[in-house]
Design brief:
Elements lengths: L6 H21 L15 E2 L2 E5 L4 H8 L3 E9 L4 E9 L2 H5 L3 H4 L5 E9 L5 E8 L5 E8 L2 E3 L2 H14 L5 E8 L13 H14 L13
Antiparallel strand pairs: 1-2, 2-3, 3-4, 4-9, 5-6, 6-7, 7-8, 7-9
Length: 216
């Protein structure tokens, strides 16, 4: 039995504890920024695209996303790469080994980070294939800024998200299985060109987005 002198304090604590539950489970508060993956051009530079046969139900189950695209972009020269872009309010679904979902048939042995000049030096996580063939990489965007350490970001925003609306995270993932140079040569590859142009096309919906700025 709780002493009556602690009753008011206990009531306040319990009420505060219910705030996140009410916001996320009942009110469903979520911030919207007006951006959508469908706005990404079907033609990026010299690459024209066609959609894959990816099922919406699979993307929803895997990444908790209803806003996504997956296309194969191909140039007249025969160079091509797959582009997958998805937005989700479940940040961890996107940053925790995203390649296991989209690229589940490809084996990777590690990754490193490179930066794309011209777009605030966006950190791009380059995946290293076990065979040394092909280029794969992804970049994460949250609240108008690029994410290099998603775990640190999630920890840093956890308290704010307890009482504030959720914000979407966007992942841009590319894979060029035909590149003979390996993931170490991602820069300048078809995959890098498609990733860069896809980001530019996506951010063109909101030109003031700070992620689209010049080099740092």
């Amino acid at each position: 039995m709780i002493s009556t002198r602690y009753g008011r304090v206990s009531g306040i604590v319990l009420a505060l504890a219910l705030v996140p539950t009410i916001i996320h489970n009942y009110v469903g508060a979520a911030a919207t920024d007006g951006l959508t993956t469908e706005a990404i051009s079907t033609t990026l530079g010299e690459f024209a695209s066609k959609p894959t046969a990816r099922r919406a139900g699979w993307v929803k189950e895997t990444y908790d996303s209803d806003d996504w695209i997956e296309r194969i972009y191909t140039a007249a020269t025969g160079e091509s790469a797959l582009l997958f872009v998805a937005r989700s309010y479940d940040m961890k679904r996107l940053y925790h080994h995203p390649e296991i979902g989209v690229l589940h048939t490809v084996s990777f042995s590690g990754k490193h980070v490179v930066r794309l000049p011209g777009m605030n030096n966006a950190p791009v996580h380059v995946l290293q294939t076990q065979t040394g063939r092909g280029s794969a990489a992804y970049a994460l965007l949250y609240d108008g800024a690029w994410v290099e350490d998603p775990i640190a970001l999630q920890l840093g925003t956890s308290l704010k998200l307890l009482v504030g609306p959720r914000k979407p995270t966007t992942i841009f993932l590319v894979y060029d299985k035909n590149s003979p140079l390996g993931s170490a040569s991602f820069e300048g590859s078809p995959a890098e060109k498609i990733l860069r142009d896809a980001v530019v096309s996506f951010l063109a919906q909101n030109p003031s987005n700070k992620a689209a700025g010049g080099t740092n």
